[in-house]
Design goal:
By secondary structure, the chain is of the alpha/beta class. It has helices at 52-55, 58-65, 73-81, 145-153, 170-180, 200-209, and strands spanning 2-8, 11-16, 19-23, 44-46, 68-72, 85-89, 94-97, 100-106, 123-129, 132-136, 157-161, 184-188, 213-214, 222-224.
Length: 225
């Protein structure tokens, strides 16, 4: 079985047979999340940047399960200093695993560790699971990189922030989706807290108007890959 489950906010869980990987596992303190990682087999945790609503429970999960955190060089070193297992990378990295592969790409955002020290560059990730491509944009503004990512990799699924304030909003995310040429778009980073409250139906309408499908998943809903 292969599936992509939305945990809430920007957190996702990808399963392939007996392997599972987490992305931005903000679970504790997330009012939209209801996910028990202890019932899952997790090999890797991908973190886009160091802010608490993305680093989330990654260190705890790594320490309790042995899962390896993949993050920017500075953030990975911070995680290691807290007792977690981690691999430090930067944009441009291409890593192969038994469950598939991932490319680390750019994102435009700030990043600081819980101690407010610099958290390294912000990243986005392009996953390839048996030929199915999933692009997690992380926290970002609308950047020209989306055009190149679309031309080179044409990700089938695009996971895009739409909440505004801290990331791009719905209008910019719709432009990003068009630049990526993605067939299906899953919105994220919205409605978790009051500052990023939006009417997601407006985003659905924007994408439908440009011929793209929007999948506004609720917590624990999933798509089969």
């Amino acid at each position: 079985m292969r599936k992509l489950t939305y945990i809430g906010h920007s957190a996702f869980f990808i399963e392939k047979d007996w392997d599972g990987i987490l992305i931005d596992p903000f679970i504790s303190g997330n009012p939209t999340a209801n996910f028990d990682y202890k019932k899952k087999r997790i090999s890797h945790i991908f973190v886009t940047h160091a802010h608490h609503d993305h680093l989330g429970d990654a260190i705890e999960i790594s320490k309790n399960t042995g899962a390896i955190i993949v993050a920017s060089f500075e953030l990975a070193n911070y995680c290691i200093s807290k007792g977690a297992k981690a691999i430090g990378i930067n944009a441009g990295a291409h890593l192969n695993f038994k469950w598939g592969s991932v490319r680390a790409l750019n994102a435009s955002h700030s990043s600081s560790n819980p101690d407010l020290a610099y958290g390294g560059a912000c990243l986005s990730y392009l996953f390839d699971i048996d030929g199915t491509t999933i692009y997690h944009a992380g926290d970002t503004s609308l950047i020209p990189d989306f055009s190149l990512i679309g031309e080179l990799y044409n990700p089938y699924y695009a996971l895009l922030p739409i909440g505004g304030i801290y990331t791009m909003g719905m209008e910019e995310a719709a432009i990003a989706a068009k630049m990526l040429y993605s067939m299906e778009v899953i919105p994220m980073h919205y409605n978790t807290f009051p500052p990023i409250k939006v009417d997601v139906q407006k985003f659905v309408d924007l994408l439908e108007a440009q011929g793209q499908k929007c999948l506004p998943l609720k917590a624990n809903e999933y798509v089969e890959l």
